[in-house]
Each structure stands twice: as structure tokens, then as C-alpha cells.
């Protein structure tokens, strides 16, 4: 490695002569996290390989492997192909592209760096957003021969979206355009016009060659017209964001309550913003209770002060309620709580957003159930145009209203990444399907108040001398739901119970006649039915419903609307083949013939209940026997004397 | 006035945050403890994260019976000092068949470690396991998430990883599925050494140079740690001043000749050295460039 004679990395002398002095210096280095973005062939991997190579992060054995690989599969002829150093996974080596976010590390005399390497392919917007979410700075690479491309715009827009404040415009491959100043100036001019359009106020342009090493660590003799900083020099000196975070009011989401014994109660978390000292007044949200910090506890002895970015454990003067999901904040400037928001959502799953479906939303340490409305618009990341859309597909970025099932403590993302950034998790597959940013809360939630009623649901139920319940029949079309539900109601009626039967077909003639059979409409159908059953249960009735209700998420949504124990899920278990053989309404035949779309069991899935309260095997029981079993179970549980 | 956190302070805060997320969201977490320097740092961070409580999970050592003696000693001592429960698991089938690194090559790692780990996780029903892997160690690790999802059969699918944004970790999973969590993902080898030095964390003495009995074999310098080491014809243990950069099963771990007997000297040597840390390990090399990625897909940590 004779050609790495750069003074920036020449710490060898100090290491050899005075290791303790070197370690002391290293110990006080700060950390900068940045992301590199560029299109395929912009030389991104080469640039990162170069940074690692120049900072001596590559050892002889790795280098030997690299040299062998370069000759075998490299794209640089006999020269070293730095890209091979960072293209990690076997699959992508074969394809010659980077397919996921990878993290790299290097150190210079002044700083330690973590680089998120993200791909430039269109289908990988989600990877770039992921990599950018933890970055303080973005290096946007442009191929000097190609200039500002669609991808450049997209990367810049995403960097801005995620709130990255420092942007380096690295005009790469200058060696291939003869280090021509005019080429560089033209690209900078084009980029400046675009940057302004999307609200990027500042960026630092540099002419470089990752392959040849120009202006990476030393100013290149090939670009005498360039007087700005080298890439490494800039990365080493740019201000890290933590001063901004520390200047804001104190906020710490509570992760874990530390309670080893009755004498100690501490609240652990990572400080999201501000600073804290013993003696300071804090407020716990959403309860709003206040107390004083008495100690900041640590293994090596209590701290006098803690700042944004540190993980700490706080003790209070008073025994106030505080648990995971709460936010501890400066008493005099607490963050708000709300349950309706305008949000920007980046969709990251192959399965599109289903508006109205409940997803888990995780923000800070709070996890709640949330629904997203159809987007107001989606952004075309290539043209920045706002387009109409009914849903969000993979890699779509949309602005949409979002509702949570209970109020969450938040701050707009622009003010606080921790209290404004969230992920959405599919309740069935548990995969992370989206990331988003809360822009602001909507006032509507605060203005529609619940009307308190004097005759309570308990009073309604007591008047009827029964416990309200919802008997929720689910199963394939033709499984026997309606038949059994009818008999159950007759039996309950005979026993003097107050009930009401809501049938799927009947509801679709009235309340839900505006709905079709798409996935989204089916969900809305069940949501409305759920709301109606809830009102009827509030009135003290035993509600019986017979809907296919194919999706677990929606059945669970209705379950969650009701008090614990009132939702009785009854799975009418008839195999598809049997239901199709019976085909009471002739619907399977039509579906098979292609005349009916989205028919459950044929071209739309049915998700059977995992733990139904009651399961009816229709091949073992007659409808009459099934109804007896259900009634006995319901009535038996509640009134053993009957 | 702003206080700029050092890189070690930021790394420490991140690791502690990760461990607390697991403690709060996992049903039955466990910390895999391999007794190496990375495990030592991970354990220390766990003690910091939950102080004054002891870490709310046990330590699990997936033992191959072929570790260095000094490792077993430190393991027992550290479990006691941290007031944590220590679980030791040895794959009964490997034990019965007498699987060893001398006669069985790659099968040794596969049965004792990969299979042993899966069996131990299934036996105790752990849903989250902390591991001390770092992203700077190996290329496929550079792309692995901090919360790395595993199927019910412990498989890892590198193309189907959950996006991981900000410091929001998705710990949701179905029954039978599990998550491997790597709290020191973003630490480098130098960070580990420096943290050990600053916090005076006990590590196995084998990391420091000392005269030890050795033989040279297949390009590796192996230490004759006990009488189970079968000498080949003509081999005679030679005392050399050696130390280890990484610790595994002694017959698979190559030593380096060195005089570095203090932490500073070890770090100095590490910084001036020209070969990578895992170079002394045979395991990465079985099967060429994609070897570690393949092992991970099969369930190796």
C-alpha cells in the first residue's frame, strides 16, 4: 500500500511511539453518521471502498482476496475494483449491484464515521429512507459524464424528506471528463436550481474521483481551480447535530421501569432532546403529573447532568405513575398529545396500504393501533408532482391522515425525530410495512367530544337482566353461518333473551349498499358492522352476526371495540370443498366461471381464527346440534341456574 | 453549553437502548455469551443498562467442550460477578458421537455450534437472543439488521429483512419465530478494545502475550491447551510468546506471535497489524467467499 501516503491517516507514527497519547486522542473523537447515495454506476461502492482503503481499514488478507476477486469478477481490468470490498452478499456480487443497506466504518484523526451504503435502484426507495433515517449528512454522487439525473433528484428529495441538513454534492468520475471545470460548474448550477425547488437551502459541491482518489483526502493537482475542502476534510469538520437537539426542551420516552426492590424505582430511556439535572422539575405525559428528578443513576456513580443522546435512568422525588410508553419532559414545556394527524408515509411492503385497516404504530416507546386514510396525494419522486392515489404501493410516498386508537405524545418530525418518526407494523405478518413522519395534529379530534349519557350501558343490560354479548359467526360462504345463527336466535328468544341478528346479505341491502367486494370495501363493511354491534351491545342486547369476515385483523378490530369477554368468535368450520359442494346460492359456480371477482376461498383469502371462543365442525354436527352447543355455552356461562 | 458526546458515548447509549427495548418487548430473552472480548463488552453494557437491577435475562454459553481452559474459568467468574444465571448447553448428539475439530472438520462447527445453538434456543423457548457480532467483522454482517428476524427453523433470509429506521425496532413475531439482536453492531474492533480499557472490563488472559506451548499446522499457529490435542508424527510443542486476537475452539483458533502483554500494547499491535481479525479463524474459509453468509442462513450466529 505504498500509494497511501496521506498525512490525514498517518497516525502510525503516533501509534508506534506513544500508544497512550494516540488512544487518548481517539477516545475524544466524535461520531458522524452519513449516507452515500447515487445511481447504479455512479461509483458509490468505489468511493466507499476508497475511503476504507485510504483509512487503512483494509487488511492484507482482505486485500489479497480483493486483488484476486478484482481479476476474476472485477470491472476495472487489472486494477483493483474497490466496489468488491463493499458489495457484501453473494447474490448481489453475481448481479453486480448493491441490494440492501450496508453499514461501514472508518476512522480518521478527528472522527469516527459510520457510512450507510444504499442502493440507487428505483425499487429500493425504502432502503435509502432506512439508511438516511440515522444519518447526519448525505453524500449525493453524480457521474460527471451524466450530470443531474432523475435518480439524483429522487435521492435529494428523500434526504430532505428524512430531515438531513448537510448535503455534499460529489461530482464523481472527474477523471473521465478531463477534470474540466466547465462540466463541474454546469452540474452545480443545474443542481442548485433543483435543490432550491425542493427546499434544500445549502449544499457543498466537490469535484472528485473515487477511483483515482482526487480531492478525497488531499486537494488534487488535477483540479487547481477547486479551492474548497476535500471530502474527508469536510466530513471531519461539519458540525454534528447534537447541539441542536440539546438546545431543545427535555424529552425522554420511558423504555423500561427499573424496580429491583421496593426501595428503588427508576425510569430508563434514551434522552431524545434537551438536558436534565437532579433538582429539575419534570412532567410525565400523557398523565401530566409532575415531580422532581432526584438522581441520574449509573453503574459508575450518579451523574450531575445528562444530555440528548445518552441512555440514562432517572429517579423522582414522588411516587407518581410512570411506565413504558410515557414521555418524561421538561415541566414547563411539555409536548402535546393527539390522536389524529397529517402524516407523510413511505410505504415499504409489497402489499399495498389498506386504508382503514388497523396497523401497529410504533413511535418512540409507544405502540398503538392506527389506521391510515386514503392518501390526499402521493409524490412522484422523479418530478416532485403531487398525484391522486387511492392507496400506497411499495416505495410510494404519500401524505395522509392517520388516526390512532388512543392519544399519543408527539412532536412534529421536523422538530424531533424521536417523537415524530414512526413505523407501521402489519398485525398479521408482523413485518414493518411503512415508515412515516407526523407533520402536525388535526384539530378535529379535540372538538368532537363524547356525549356523556345518564343511562349507562350497565343500566341497559341490568334492565334486560342479561349480559350483553356479540356472537360473531365467521366462515366461508355457504358454511352454514346464517342457518345456525338463525336457530341460535330463536332459542335465545325462547329463553326470554333480548337479541338481534345482523346478517351479511341484509346489511348489504341497506347500511352498506355503497360497498363492493374489494379488500378495502370488505374491511369498511366489517368496520361499520362492528360499530353497529357495539351500539347494540351498549343497549344491552345479545347481538348475533353472520358475516364471512375473512380477515383476522378486522375481526380483532371489532373484538378490541368491545369490553373484554363480550366478543364471542364462532368459527363455522366447513372445508372449502364441502362448502363448494353444497353451493346453496350457486355462488361458487359463478366464481369458478370468473363471473364473480374477489370471492372468498376462490380468489380472495380466508384467514381462519387462531383461537375462536367456539369452533363448530359442520361435518360432525347438524345445525340444530351446533345451535344447542352455542346456546348452552352462552347461557350456561352466564346464568348457571337456568 | 453543548456537550459533544464522544463516539464511544454514542455507541454505549445506542447499545443500552437496544438492550432495554428487548427487555421491555421480549417474552423470554437470553444473552449468548461466548466469553470473548465482544461478549465481555456486551455483558458490561447489559450491567450498565439495568443497574441497579441485574440484567433481566440469563447468559447462555453454547459450549463445544473444546474452548480454552482459561475461557471456562472467566465464564464462571463473570456469571457470578454479574449475578446472572448461567446456562451451559452442549449438543448431546455431538457429545455422544464424539464430534471434535481434529477428525470432523466443518461438521464440528455445524453440530456443536449451529445445531447446539438451535437446540438450546428451542429447549428453553427463548424468543430473543443477544449476540455480540459486529458489522465490521465480515461482509454479510455489514448488511444484517440489529433486530434480525429468524423463522421458526432459525433461518435468516437476507433478501427479506425488515426495514430498520431511526432507533425504532420491530420486535413483533409469531409463536415459534425468534429474533437475534446485535447490540454492538456498530462497534469496531478498536472501539471494543478501547472500551475494555476505559471500563477495566475483565477479559480472558489469552488475549495477552505469554510463552505458551504451540505447534504450527496448516499455516496456523495452534496452542496445545490440553492433552486432547493429537500431535502428528514429527510435531513437538514449542514454547512461543503468543496471544490471540479472537477466541474460539482452541484447535481452530490461530495465535499470533507477539510480545504485547498489556492492553495498550495489544491495541498498538492491532492498529499496526496488517491482517484482519477473523483471519485466524478457519470457520470463515470453509466454502469460499460466501461462507459466512451461508452459515448464517443455516442458523449460525
Write a compact overview of the structure shown.
By secondary structure, chain A is α/β, with parallel strands linked by helices. Helices cover 30% and strands 25% of the residues of chain A.
Beta-strand residue fraction of chain B: 5-15%
Q: Identify the strand order in the major beta sheet of chain A.
A: 7-15-11-12-14-9-8
Assign a percent range to the helix content of chain B. 25-40%
Q: Figure out the total of helices of chain B.
A: 9
Distance between the termini of chain B: 43 Å
Separation, N- and C-terminal Cα atoms of chain A: 91 Å
Query: What pair of chains forms the biggest interface?
Result: A-B, 84 and 70 residues
Could you give the count of β-strands of chain B? 10
Shape of chain A: globular
Strand content of chain A: 25-35%
Oligomer: heterodimer
Q: Number of helical segments of chain A?
A: 21
Structural category of chain B is: alpha/beta
Amino acid at each position: 500500500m505504498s500509494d497511501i501516503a496521506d498525512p490525514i491517516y498517518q497516525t502510525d507514527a503516533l501509534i508506534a511511539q506513544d500508544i497512550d497519547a494516540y488512544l487518548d486522542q481517539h477516545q475524544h473523537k466524535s461520531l458522524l453518521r452519513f449516507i452515500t447515495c447515487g445511481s447504479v454506476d455512479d461509483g458509490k461502492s468505489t468511493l466507499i471502498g476508497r475511503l476504507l482503503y485510504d483509512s487503512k481499514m483494509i487488511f492484507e488478507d482482505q486485500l489479497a482476496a480483493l486483488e484476486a476477486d478484482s481479476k476474476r469478477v472485477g470491472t476495472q481490468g487489472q486494477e483493483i475494483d474497490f466496489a468488491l470490498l463493499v458489495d457484501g452478499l453473494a447474490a448481489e456480487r453475481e448481479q453486480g449491484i448493491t441490494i440492501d443497506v450496508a453499514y461501514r466504518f472508518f476512522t480518521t484523526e478527528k472522527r469516527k464515521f459510520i457510512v450507510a451504503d444504499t442502493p440507487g435502484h428505483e425499487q429500493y426507495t425504502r432502503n435509502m429512507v432506512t439508511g438516511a433515517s440515522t444519518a447526519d449528512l448525505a453524500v449525493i454522487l453524480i457521474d460527471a459524464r451524466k450530470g443531474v439525473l432523475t435518480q439524483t433528484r429522487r435521492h435529494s428529495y428523500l434526504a430532505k424528506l428524512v430531515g438531513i441538513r448537510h448535503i455534499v454534492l460529489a461530482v464523481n468520475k472527474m477523471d473521465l471528463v478531463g477534470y474540466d471545470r466547465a462540466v463541474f460548474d454546469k452540474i452545480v448550477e443545474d443542481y442548485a436550481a433543483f435543490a432550491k425547488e425542493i427546499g434544500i437551502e445549502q449544499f457543498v459541491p466537490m469535484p472528485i474521483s473515487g477511483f483515482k482518489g482526487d480531492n478525497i483526502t488531499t486537494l488534487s493537482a488535477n483540479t487547481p481551480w477547486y479551492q474548497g475542502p476535500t471530502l474527508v476534510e469536510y466530513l471531519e469538520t461539519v458540525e454534528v447535530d447534537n447541539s441542536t437537539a440539546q438546545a431543545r426542551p427535555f424529552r425522554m420516552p420511558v423504555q423500561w421501569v427499573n424496580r429491583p426492590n421496593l426501595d428503588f424505582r427508576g425510569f430508563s430511556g434514551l434522552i431524545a432532546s434537551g438536558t436534565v439535572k437532579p433538582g429539575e422539575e419534570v412532567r410525565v405525559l400523557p398523565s401530566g403529573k409532575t415531580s422532581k428528578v432526584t438522581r441520574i443513576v449509573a453503574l459508575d456513580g450518579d451523574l450531575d447532568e445528562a444530555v440528548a443522546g445518552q441512555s440514562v435512568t432517572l429517579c423522582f422525588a414522588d411516587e407518581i405513575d410512570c411506565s413504558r410508553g410515557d414521555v418524561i419532559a421538561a415541566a414547563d414545556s411539555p409536548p402535546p398529545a393527539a390522536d389524529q394527524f397529517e402524516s407523510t408515509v413511505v410505504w415499504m411492503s409489497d402489499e399495498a396500504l389498506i386504508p382503514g385497516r388497523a396497523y401497529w404504530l410504533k413511535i418512540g416507546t409507544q405502540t398503538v393501533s392506527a389506521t391510515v386514510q386514503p392518501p390526499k396525494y402521493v409524490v412522484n419522486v422523479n418530478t416532485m408532482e403531487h398525484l391522486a392515489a387511492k392507496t400506497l404501493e411499495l416505495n410510494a410516498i404519500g401524505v395522509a391522515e392517520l388516526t390512532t386508537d388512543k392519544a399519543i405524545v408527539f412532536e412534529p418530525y421536523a422538530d424531533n425525530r424521536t417523537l415524530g418518526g414512526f413505523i407501521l407494523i402489519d398485525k398479521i405478518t408482523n413485518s414493518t410495512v411503512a415508515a412515516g413522519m407526523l407533520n402536525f395534529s388535526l384539530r378535529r379530534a379535540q372538538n368532537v367530544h363524547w356525549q356523556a349519557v345518564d343511562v349507562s350501558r350497565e343500566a341497559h343490560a341490568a334492565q334486560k337482566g342479561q349480559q350483553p354479548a356479540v356472537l360473531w359467526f365467521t366462515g366461508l360462504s355457504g358454511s352454514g353461518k346464517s342457518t345456525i345463527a338463525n336457530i341460535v336466535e330463536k332459542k335465545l328468544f325462547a329463553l326470554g333473551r333480548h337479541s338481534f341478528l345482523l346478517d351479511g346479505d341484509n346489511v348489504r341491502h341497506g347500511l352498506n349498499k355503497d360497498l363492493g367486494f374489494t379488500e378495502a370495501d370488505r374491511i369498511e363493511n366489517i368496520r361499520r358492522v362492528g360499530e353497529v354491534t357495539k351500539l347494540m351491545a351498549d343497549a344491552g342486547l345479545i347481538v348475533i352476526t353472520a358475516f364471512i369476515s375473512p380477515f383476522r385483523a378486522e375481526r380483532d378490530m371489532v373484538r378490541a371495540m368491545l369490553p373484554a369477554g363480550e366478543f364471542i368468535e364462532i368459527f363455522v368450520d366447513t372445508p372449502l370443498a364441502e362448502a363448494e359442494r353444497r353451493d346453496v346460492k350457486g355462488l361458487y359456480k359463478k366464481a369458478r366461471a370468473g363471473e364473480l371477482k374477489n370471492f372468498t376461498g376462490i380468489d380472495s383469502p380466508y384467514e381462519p381464527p387462531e383461537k375462536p371462543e367456539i369452533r363448530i365442525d359442520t361435518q360432525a354436527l347438524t345445525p340444530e346440534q351446533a345451535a344447542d352447543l352455542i346456546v348452552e355455552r352462552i347461557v350456561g356461562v352466564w346464568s348457571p341456574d337456568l | 453549553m453543548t456537550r459533544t458526546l464522544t463516539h464511544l458515548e454514542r455507541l454505549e447509549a445506542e447499545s443500552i437502548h437496544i438492550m432495554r427495548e428487548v427487555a421491555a418487548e421480549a417474552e423470554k430473552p437470553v444473552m449468548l455469551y461466548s466469553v470473548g472480548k465482544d461478549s465481555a463488552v456486551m455483558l458490561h453494557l447489559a450491567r450498565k443498562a439495568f443497574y441497579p437491577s441485574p440484567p433481566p435475562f440469563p447468559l447462555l454459553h453454547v459450549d463445544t467442550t473444546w474452548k480454552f481452559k482459561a475461557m471456562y474459568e472467566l465464564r464462571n467468574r463473570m456469571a457470578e460477578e454479574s449475578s446472572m444465571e448461567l446456562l451451559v448447553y452442549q449438543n448431546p448428539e455431538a457429545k455422544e458421537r464424539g464430534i471434535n475439530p481434529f477428525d470432523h472438520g466443518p461438521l464440528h462447527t455445524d453440530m456443536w455450534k449451529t445445531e447446539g445453538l438451535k437446540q438450546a434456543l428451542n429447549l428453553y423457548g427463548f424468543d430473543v437472543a443477544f449476540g455480540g457480532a459486529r458489522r465490521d467483522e465480515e461482509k454479510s454482517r455489514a448488511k444484517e439488521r440489529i433486530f434480525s428476524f429468524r423463522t421458526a427453523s432459525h433461518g435468516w433470509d437476507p433478501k427479506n429483512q425488515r426495514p430498520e429506521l431511526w432507533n425504532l425496532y420491530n420486535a413483533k413475531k409469531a409463536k415459534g419465530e425468534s429474533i437475534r439482536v446485535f447490540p454492538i453492531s456498530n462497534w469496531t474492533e478498536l472501539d471494543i478494545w478501547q472500551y475494555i480499557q476505559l471500563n477495566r472490563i475483565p477479559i480472558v488472559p489469552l488475549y495477552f502475550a505469554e510463552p505458551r506451548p504451540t505447534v504450527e499446522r496448516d499455516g496456523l499457529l495452534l496452542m496445545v491447551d490440553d492433552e486432547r490435542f493429537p500431535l502428528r508424527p514429527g510435531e513437538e510443542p514449542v514454547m512461543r510468546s503468543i496471544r490471540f486476537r479472537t477466541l474460539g475452539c482452541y484447535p481452530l483458533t490461530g495465535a499470533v506471535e507477539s510480545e504485547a502483554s498489556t492492553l495498550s500494547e495489544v491495541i498498538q499491535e492491532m492498529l499496526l497489524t496488517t491482517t484482519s481479525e477473523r483471519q485466524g479463524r478457519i470457520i470463515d474459509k470453509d466454502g469460499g467467499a460466501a461462507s459466512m453468509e451461508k452459515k448464517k442462513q443455516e442458523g449460525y450466529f
